[in-house]
Amino acid sequence: MAKIYGFVAEFNPFHNGHKQFIDQIRKKYHPDVLIAVMSGNFVQRGDFAVLNKHLRAQTAVENGVDLVVELPFVQTVQPANIFAESAIQILRQIGITDLVFGTEAEMDFPQLARRVIIEQMEFKQDFTHSYAENLHQQLLQIGVDTANKPNQLLGLNYTTAIEKKGYPIKVHSLLRTQDGFSATKIRQSLGSQDWSNIVDMVPQGTYDLLRSQKIITWNDFYPFLRYKILTNTTNELQLMYQMVEGLNFKLKKEISRTDDFEKLLFSVKSKRYTLARIRRLLMYVLINVDNKEMISALTQTYLRILGFSDTGQQYLHQQKKNFNIPLITKVGQSEHNLMNLELRADSVYQLVNHEEQNFGVIPYIKGEN
């Protein structure tokens, strides 16, 4: 039986730690095919990816990934549990046999996931705190401390999704080394234009792209966000996905007296609403995503291919008849209804990026682009 390994990534941006992770998977497990499901132009915590999805997919394929599949906007810009469940669903659909993820501490993830599922039935959520804090407290009750361990927490979310669905996917965790590579540090260095710090943390291909491309941030879109909030009524804002009552009034109040995105974030943040939660909410407002549309979009699953090696291309050719959901290698008008929200989100992204992200764009093919 072929060994089809998969993992979840954002590559925001792709750095040397990612390269080590990929090399470690190949050396330890010898997969026949290595697949990454990767967030598109938006990332889980409610930010814009520093490089567009096609460039990040290209870098991943050039550094050892056989196939890159997009995790759409509606499934990416979500709390960790929905993000994880959506990514696992896509990896399951494309046929992985094994999942790999990094972790700050080794644990028996399948056993813990089964305990989490049981505990969730009895856990009483404290609505004065954020989802993240509630989950942290729940895990503490079963002896797991995930504070400041984001990879461990995501790994547990991935494994819980697998256990809930009963997917026949084996789980493997790789201990993260203290190598100093950090996408957060790289993004901070990008903000201060500290290229001397970045050059030692990323492959040459990533470095060249970062130097040549406009790095997109929330500051580029803040005027659009202000316009949207100022011209919408509080009732219209209340319809936005995950807009709880009261935040619509708070946003209307604060947006008129600050011209800085970070200041707006901290003016709205509270014990109950984390910065990531607020960023995601503001992204829904910017893209104009209401509850009804999001719930509908979450049911529309497809496989959007962003890049592949020869091995990945052969795998797709062999398996495409077995896929139960649409396989998209080139977006045309027939995909418009299926990808409606993704296309709208990317059209907003293109207001600053100025490059077509979907129509007519083919996957990156290693050695041919």
TrEMBL record:
Q: Which residues form a coiled coil?
A: none
What's any one GO cellular component for it? cytoplasm
Top-rank taxon, per record: Bacteria
Q: What is catalyzed by this enzyme?
A: cytidine(34) in elongator tRNA(Met) + acetate + ATP = N(4)-acetylcytidine(34) in elongator tRNA(Met) + AMP + diphosphate
Looking at the Swiss-Prot or TrEMBL record, what is one Pfam family this protein matches?
HIGH_NTase1
The record's annotation in PANTHER family points to: TRNA(MET) CYTIDINE ACETATE LIGASE (PTHR37825)
Q: What is the protein's name according to its record?
A: tRNA(Met) cytidine acetate ligase
Source species, please?
Answer: Companilactobacillus versmoldensis DSM 14857 = KCTC 3814
